[in-house]
Design brief:
The structure holds two protein chains of two kinds. By secondary structure, chain A is mainly β. Chain A has strands at about 5, 10-15, 20, 25, 30-40, 45-50, 55-60, 65-70, 75-80, 85-95, 100-105, 110-114. In chain A, strands 2, 5, 6, 10, 11 and 12 form a six-stranded mixed beta sheet that branches. The chains are: A mainly beta, B mainly beta.
Amino acid sequence: AQSVTQLDSQVPVFEEAPVELRCNYSSSVSVYLFWYVQYPNQGLQLLLKYLSGSTLVKGINGFEAEFNKSQTSFHLRKPSVHISDTAEYFCAVGADTGGFKTIFGAGTRLFVKA
Amino acid sequence: DTAVSQTPKYLVTQMGNDKSIKCEQNLGHDTMYWYKQDSKKFLKIMFSYNNKELIINETVPNRFSPKSPDKAHLNLHINSLELGDSAVYFCASQRMSGANVLTFGAGSRLTVL
């Protein structure tokens, strides 16, 4: 079985500051790793994904994430945040275990302050 | 053109009633899902269908019955609604090859009074 732990439920940060949202996962099989973003009253949108290859993955809106197999982590980073980045961020793992299943972490609320 | 569309967007009803939520995707994807998001934003998978066949059925009360008339549609019917069913229900679709990325609808907020 797979599981995802997002280590911070809320991250307040000032505009133009860097941010890191932490995610750890566990799985007994190979997984795909994702970060999704949810803006208020909307569905989730894909930010970036890791399938294989380079461990540094670049996504939309200036976000990037690094896959670390030894630490089973997939932390999300942005060097300079904007007010518009305020949203809920979800780390997710996907695996095919008799049907492809994507399991989500509990979410991290990023709050960007002026 | 909305890729994954859900109706209704909002649903307010009394305990004990039966209600349905509909979902349609125009992406040509093979697989569709229902997820439930509770008041703490936690997302839990409920069901998945691949080409009209039920693939994943998580531990969900049998008051919840999904139906897929074709691979572009997945509906969710809920019988005898309870207060704890209040949540936002998200439909999602996925092409079962390559990246396996989910495309979500905007959600259907169900409030049971």
